């Protein structure tokens, strides 16, 4: 209560973005259709201001605000900056798509900004209550975004599935948290850790809580065996929303896992390591094998996401500093890849036409060699072929797992990655060696073309020189986890 | 005050707990969704009673006010009005049962083993001291909710805001078939809004075509 | 402190007895000879045209949902009102921020025409 000035400064980026979301919501009501573009500008401005204040208020030490419910450390700042950049790219890529589909409304931008606030709270939450409220803020905004295109029956069905399973996952998470609270008497992440360090609490009850927490987290991450919503929701949602769901929230989910498992339940690492190991292996298998059978591009990317989540879990499972750093590196690379991939799908869509089948990519090289080349980089990166970013990310994760002594898991994951390369390469074959089925020109705003090109080329550039991103990830983890 | 070795509070607890369990079971087994919703109301009521026994009065009242008073009424409203095909809902029940029953049973057994008396019995977790009659649970809640838990509290308002936006964005639409009129708009209407004056060449009847061309020729000649 | 709730428990029990008692009594005492004509729904002497359930305008739900949201907000006001003396200006401002956010929602709702019925 006394430090309210410090609290407010620490949470300034969140407050600014929240204010901007509300401003967008209200401004939209007074704008004419022709001036609507202003809300796009306001949203981007909000992200920029939040980024500015995140950078200027950054200190390398760990600071707690709101009586320990909120933390400002290097990891939260780094992840928040990644979230701003990712969301900003999403705004750029989706602008034309939603304009053509009658979704260019204040609600879209306000809900995306609210979901970003939710992610930031998840990243900075230091109490289970804060983390949970942040998660709900994110989830609720996403459910509404999926269903925003109201006359689209697929989207409505996807929203329904997403909502029901998401609510179930939240319930499990809460039940697990209540068990941990019952045993430790605290909701605070560091307090729980202290209590558990002293060896109090009944182990069986803690494990029960842990199981429910891990199951809830797996639901939200989309890891096998809790993955069933992922393909349906990816396929049914408007591509603009699929892009959002599949990208930046994973960064927040990563922080969520780190806060809960690595920080508060650190002493139970042996227990959650096994759970994550099983989920990682299953996710990598199911993601890669099932993706081969898909003809729908969005579904294929959904299964690809599941396998990527498996690799992230592999990094987290190592339960070591190196493991967390490699997992953070992997998830950041994944976001860059996914944004570029869905950006190209949005680029190929036009009024009344959704590019979502693999056959829509046929002969892309003849229609536009440059776009085909960008897609080639994205596919190479997702498959993990050097010298792209995806290769280095997989390499880092597998190295960390190897250091932790999981030799056979690593061999197995490499094998599965090779199988997975098949369906990425099939996309490349379709683009370069098949005849195009439709020859309509690819139209997109200039800024989207430029930024999308830079995004895809970044996969190549960071892949060749990964030290920069690696240093950032190292900084984020080493400064935040003791 | 004891009956057969049970405290009066225990009797109340076991009565409420039994009703709660039966009501909960009926929610998922009853055929008619309206009855299911009513059983859920009963479950909420008895749960509120149990919370009251735990001296969580404010939450008990809030449960009745918010859930029974508002949420369940909406629920009942939806269930009663909607044209639900009951047989379709029950399809696959027997097919899923052989898998669902062992999984559910296993979870129940695990939970009873862990959450049961061995870890949470009265000898392990002593009952907290009873509070005096003027103790206010609501005040205790208020003391921390707006100070220590300020951040989650304010975030709750944002969650509610998102719910408002989502509810309106997903359900509100302009009705095409609405015949109502807005008098303000009617009064404000100007001539320019309704009447469009189009400048155009003078129409000439078709059967005069020959004549006009002749006139044109004449003009050209002049 | 639970003793204070004993009258309420008694009240609920008496209320239940008054409500349930006549039902049971009528079940036991009154003659019951149903036949198909007696059990069929009565609609002014006609055969029933259709099921009573039908598609309903979604705006009824919208009003109900908006009511629930503000009902929840009210639930937060009670503990606040009880301890306002103790938590002072800080608590007052905390609630004002909370209400301010919801006022934004209210303005949005109003301007969107969600409260209108035409």
UniProtKB/TrEMBL annotation, chain A:
<feature type="transmembrane region" description="Helical">
    <location>
        <begin position="12"/>
        <end position="30"/>
    </location>
</feature>
<comment type="similarity">
    <text>Belongs to the complex I subunit 2 family.</text>
</comment>
<keyword id="KW-1003">Cell membrane</keyword>
<feature type="transmembrane region" description="Helical">
    <location>
        <begin position="405"/>
        <end position="425"/>
    </location>
</feature>
<keyword id="KW-0874">Quinone</keyword>
<keyword id="KW-0813">Transport</keyword>
<feature type="transmembrane region" description="Helical">
    <location>
        <begin position="456"/>
        <end position="477"/>
    </location>
</feature>
<dbReference type="Pfam" id="PF00361">
    <property type="entry name" value="Proton_antipo_M"/>
</dbReference>
<comment type="subunit">
    <text>NDH-1 is composed of 14 different subunits. Subunits NuoA, H, J, K, L, M, N constitute the membrane sector of the complex.</text>
</comment>
<feature type="transmembrane region" description="Helical">
    <location>
        <begin position="37"/>
        <end position="55"/>
    </location>
</feature>
<keyword id="KW-0812">Transmembrane</keyword>
<feature type="transmembrane region" description="Helical">
    <location>
        <begin position="300"/>
        <end position="321"/>
    </location>
</feature>
<feature type="transmembrane region" description="Helical">
    <location>
        <begin position="240"/>
        <end position="262"/>
    </location>
</feature>
<feature type="transmembrane region" description="Helical">
    <location>
        <begin position="274"/>
        <end position="293"/>
    </location>
</feature>
<dbReference type="InterPro" id="IPR010096">
    <property type="entry name" value="NADH-Q_OxRdtase_suN/2"/>
</dbReference>
<keyword id="KW-0520">NAD</keyword>
<feature type="domain" description="NADH:quinone oxidoreductase/Mrp antiporter transmembrane">
    <location>
        <begin position="127"/>
        <end position="419"/>
    </location>
</feature>
<dbReference type="GO" id="GO:0012505">
    <property type="term" value="C:endomembrane system"/>
</dbReference>
<dbReference type="GO" id="GO:0050136">
    <property type="term" value="F:NADH dehydrogenase (quinone) (non-electrogenic) activity"/>
</dbReference>
<protein>
    <recommendedName>
        <fullName>NADH-quinone oxidoreductase subunit N</fullName>
        <ecNumber>7.1.1.-</ecNumber>
    </recommendedName>
</protein>
<keyword id="KW-0472">Membrane</keyword>
<feature type="transmembrane region" description="Helical">
    <location>
        <begin position="201"/>
        <end position="219"/>
    </location>
</feature>
UniProtKB/TrEMBL annotation, chain C:
<dbReference type="InterPro" id="IPR023043">
    <property type="entry name" value="NAD(P)H_OxRDtase_bac/plastid"/>
</dbReference>
<comment type="function">
    <text>NDH-1 shuttles electrons from NADH, via FMN and iron-sulfur (Fe-S) centers, to quinones in the respiratory chain. The immediate electron acceptor for the enzyme in this species is believed to be ubiquinone. Couples the redox reaction to proton translocation (for every two electrons transferred, four hydrogen ions are translocated across the cytoplasmic membrane), and thus conserves the redox energy in a proton gradient.</text>
</comment>
<dbReference type="GO" id="GO:0048038">
    <property type="term" value="F:quinone binding"/>
</dbReference>
<keyword id="KW-1003">Cell membrane</keyword>
<comment type="similarity">
    <text>Belongs to the complex I subunit 3 family.</text>
</comment>
<feature type="transmembrane region" description="Helical">
    <location>
        <begin position="60"/>
        <end position="81"/>
    </location>
</feature>
<protein>
    <recommendedName>
        <fullName>NADH-quinone oxidoreductase subunit A</fullName>
        <ecNumber>7.1.1.-</ecNumber>
    </recommendedName>
</protein>
<keyword id="KW-0830">Ubiquinone</keyword>
<dbReference type="GO" id="GO:0005886">
    <property type="term" value="C:plasma membrane"/>
</dbReference>
<dbReference type="GO" id="GO:0030964">
    <property type="term" value="C:NADH dehydrogenase complex"/>
</dbReference>
<keyword id="KW-0520">NAD</keyword>
<keyword id="KW-0472">Membrane</keyword>
<keyword id="KW-0813">Transport</keyword>
<keyword id="KW-0874">Quinone</keyword>
<dbReference type="Pfam" id="PF00507">
    <property type="entry name" value="Oxidored_q4"/>
</dbReference>
<dbReference type="InterPro" id="IPR000440">
    <property type="entry name" value="NADH_UbQ/plastoQ_OxRdtase_su3"/>
</dbReference>
<dbReference type="GO" id="GO:0050136">
    <property type="term" value="F:NADH dehydrogenase (quinone) (non-electrogenic) activity"/>
</dbReference>
<dbReference type="InterPro" id="IPR038430">
    <property type="entry name" value="NDAH_ubi_oxred_su3_sf"/>
</dbReference>
<comment type="subunit">
    <text>NDH-1 is composed of 14 different subunits. Subunits NuoA, H, J, K, L, M, N constitute the membrane sector of the complex.</text>
</comment>
<feature type="transmembrane region" description="Helical">
    <location>
        <begin position="87"/>
        <end position="108"/>
    </location>
</feature>
<keyword id="KW-1133">Transmembrane helix</keyword>
<dbReference type="GO" id="GO:0008137">
    <property type="term" value="F:NADH dehydrogenase (ubiquinone) activity"/>
</dbReference>
